[in-house]
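Q: What would this complex look like in 3D?
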Amino acid sequence: MRPETREQFSIAVFALPAALFMVVMMAVPLGSVVWQSLSDETGFSLAAYVKMAQSNLFIRVTRTTLEIALGATLVAFILGYPIAYFLSKQPPRRQTVWLIVILIPFWTSSLVKSFAFVVMLGHAGILNTWLGEFGLGPYKMLFNRIGVMVGMSHFLVPFMVFPILTNLRSQPPELAKAAAIMGAGKFRIFRTVTFPLSLPGVVSGALLVFILALGFFIVPKLLGGRQDVMLSSLVDFYAREVFNFQMSSAIAVVLMATALLAAFLLSKVRGGASILSKEQS
Amino acid sequence: MERRSIWRRANAAFAVAAMIFLLLPSLIVVPMSFSDSELIIFPPKEYSFHLYERYVQEPGWVSATILSFRVALWTTILSICLGVPAAYALVRGQFPGRRMLAMFLLSPIMLPSVVLALAFYIYFVRISLSQGELRLVLAHCVATLPFIIVTAAAGIQTVDANIERAARIMGASRVYVFRTVTLPLVIPSIVAGALFAFLISFDEIIISIFVARAGDETLPIKMYSSLVFEVSPVLAAISTMLTVMSALICILVTFVQKSEAKP
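A: Here is my prediction, written as structure tokens for the whole assembly.
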């Protein structure tokens, strides 16, 4: 072996335990899900996929999942962009403090949040009681689409904020200054300079949020109604209630393929895995 | 002039409102947890530690907390042992397939939890792994490993490779250099990663529901069934404790990462 080859080999060995662990604990189990989806008692069979394509339940749930995921991505963008823009204008010290405000909900258990939203949005909940003082309501905001949207966008906003904030911070301030010297107002600078330049951040945030939204399980279960069943719940239903592993595996494969496709697009937008290159902004 | 400041102010007002929305759940559970009433009322009329007493006295809650704690601790230890060396290889190595390896090791971030959960559910039966705690630790570790790798890699990137090279030229082996030069310099990143891994495992619910056997009730599993069947006010006390834990870890990590030397 050449010395350089041996050197690289001695470094690569450091990743060996993790790689072995992930092969045994992730690749093989996922492989067996794919295999399970393609086989029944007789051997190889596409029956699960054929059945899925013809199943009204699957088609309806897929449409609901896409609707909810797109809706939640949009709401997360509407709430997340102003936050990122606001944070990028703060001096560094204050930015750290504001970031903690974003990070605390980000790291709070989804069960804690779901509990809080049940208490807030319920029929006799905090919001309805408060609205009642003004002679309004009560409105139905829980166990329907509103509850799911509130819960999911709450969870997803930070994932939208971080990529956009990274982008806004990396924009050279000279650009906005140049535009200001030319006489542009703050809003015009935002519309014609800052926002168009931030689009890569928006796209990668939106893709990330969309991937995450596709796989939601807890929030639609706890805050949604019967009309808000998503693909994840269907996987759970077939696996743990009907014990039809072929069907649940096939749905899981569809979910996995969609997520991997979106992740691939994401890596194109971001230009490769960011931990590998030091020049990443 | 007028229009400019209106635009900025309107945006700031909207952003602050959105951030209040983000903090709202945390802000609401805290006063509720000190309620004296059996009913869920906000704001509470009388304050007491009643719900915290119920948390200790009602069967199951404390043992579920202990189980979650043990699982999170083992998950953190295992994912550090695997993840930190892997991060080192990914940052310092130039070997072929490095990119593929990074994508493979980080892929659980992108996979919907329910897909992994189903995979473990089928796999553990097939390999007849019936030890409940071990099931949880191994499954959680797949979810936490990417976070350890990302935070450790960020730390290792700040270490000057020339220091390591100097030690190598002096005749130290690579493992020795890693242990005595690199590792001490990236302790803050490892601590930050470890705290987050602990939190992820402690709060993990979807994988746990699929993987845990009937007897092994982690805290999130018990909270989940309480939310599905009857919304117990004890949840307010538990939610407060979990929120405080998340907040402490966030603040701690912010300080730890600030203390890290940046070139």
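A: To summarize the key features: Chain A touches chain B through 91 residues (CB under 8 Å). The first strand of chain A starts at residue 39 and ends at 40.
Q: Very helpful, thank you.
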